[in-house]
UniProtKB/TrEMBL annotation:
Its main location: membrane. It is a multi-pass membrane protein. It comes from the Bacteria. This is O-antigen ligase-related domain-containing protein. It is found in: Membrane. The chain crosses the membrane at residues 7-27, 33-51, 58-76, 82-100, 112-132, 152-172, 184-202, 208-224, 236-253, 323-340, 352-371, 377-394. Keywords: Membrane, Transmembrane, Transmembrane helix.
Amino acid sequence: MKIKANIKLLLIPTLYLLVISSFVYYLEAIQSLLMILTGLLLLFITKFSDFKINFKNAPFIASFIILTFYYLLYFSKSSFKTIGESFLLFIVPLFSYYLYQIDSFIKIRKKIQFAYISSISLLCLYFLLFYINDIPNHHFDWYLARYNLEFYCKIHGTYICLWIGIAILFLADYISDYKKCSKKLKICSILMFISLLGGLIIYNSRNILLGLFIVVLLRLTILKREKIVITTNQKLSIAFIILLIILLSQRYLDTIHFLSNKSFTNSTRYASWTCSLKLIYDSHFLGMDYNLIQQKLNECYLPFNNFELKKFKINSHNQYLDFLLKGGFLLFFTFIWSLFIKLKETLKQKEYLYFSITVLFAIAFITENILVRQYGIYIYFLCEILLLGSIFRNKNHSIYEVEKC
């Protein structure tokens, strides 16, 4: 019992280190070690004798089992690494139920979220300063500016925008009762929001911005159903921010121009989705050797007259298609089931922060293999560890019995 008590004490500082590690994102080894350490600490405080498979945790367990089966069936030198990543994504978060049995975690969860917000805000400030300093090179050309950022900062725009989007949702949750916040916190929150918004506008991932817009619409609908009055100023502020993003980024105007003058079939996204679907069909929706996926996609790209497809290794760019390729319809079904469980339970238990984050991820999965790169694994793991336990903590619906010390 003393050992478990000491481990519980270690969990909180480890979680702080995990969220702060986002600031040194380029040191991926640190994030990997902290994710593994967090997982091990959660395993140590888990009482496996109380573990019961039920409707709520079954899709997470099934997703891991199916992925493990295929990774072992088509064994390669990367199999153990990918199995470990799947364990972190689908199994370890289930043990976060025990975090919600630790009073100190419940009390400071929002502070941990605030530490993450602070880290990402500082990152965005750096991106803004880099952007300003780089003006002589990009001359406000969005594509060139983003290329320079990605080249020198070594992080893909979609992933950093996802990190920023999560930070914005955390910030909105942290200051949900804005009127009761202190003056210092209000000023600090405004400055952080400006920094985060600036980062979003500079990198401008359309899918993440669309996801945030859908989240806002859903949250407004929920507020309306709960008969919570939304002031005119709040509505105008939301409309102003959306308009600001569209006007300050030439990307949306360029997209309209592209769609009006070219066919979508010329895009890399169309090619990657078309070829992925072809491979899925050829595998009879049963999954295939994950080691050969990229090779077969490259072969399928040959008829397309696209420079990017020839130069770069373009993956399926869709997490749902990626899982269909790797584990067939069974993995696809269990993964969708896990998303459904989270959406259903978060609405039922009014865990609207987790609901919003789940919606954002579900949309991000449409245009990117989020759970393939470490940057995606990190942010997904972080959110699941902090929030998944919240929908299991109700005694009548928990995956564990409450441990009595």
